[in-house]
TrEMBL record:
Domain NfeD-like C-terminal: 88-148
Keyword Repeat: no
Localization per Swiss-Prot or TrEMBL: Membrane
Organism encoding this protein: Prevotella dentalis (strain ATCC 49559 / DSM 3688 / JCM 13448 / NCTC 12043 / ES 2772) (Mitsuokella dentalis)
Protein name (record): Membrane protein implicated in regulation of membrane protease activity
GO MF terms, alphabetically ordered: peptidase activity
GO cellular component: plasma membrane
Amino acid sequence: MDYLTHNLWLVWTLISVLALILEVSSGTFYIMCFAIGAACAVVVSLFAAPFWVQVLAFIVFSAGSVLGVRPFVVRYLHSSDREQASNADALIGREGIVVEDIPERSTGYVKIDGDMWQARMDAYTGAAVSGDRVRVVARDSIILSVERL
């Protein structure tokens, strides 16, 4: 115990490493801020500063990281999340095969990635028969609008 009180940099290093390990499992980037604060406390402890100064450095740099570093990291890593289509919207632009004829002004079925979808032909493109390759151009609820390739 006496060893640790004389080498507080080791304690702060342990706190920093543990915080980084915990951050990997959480992904919120809050615990990373504590790792940054502990790393700054390591630097302060190397200058033989009193323990209360080290704790103050830990608090100040952790809070500063939450306010300054975390928003930047979150914005950088999650910048493309809003651009990705999901669920049925992700089908737009995909290609499929007609498995049940699609008559003019009526619906049939297409197969896209192994899933069956009700579909109708895009306006003024005529009918599609089984085996035709089509591309999804729009979606209205659960009915896809397709065009022949």
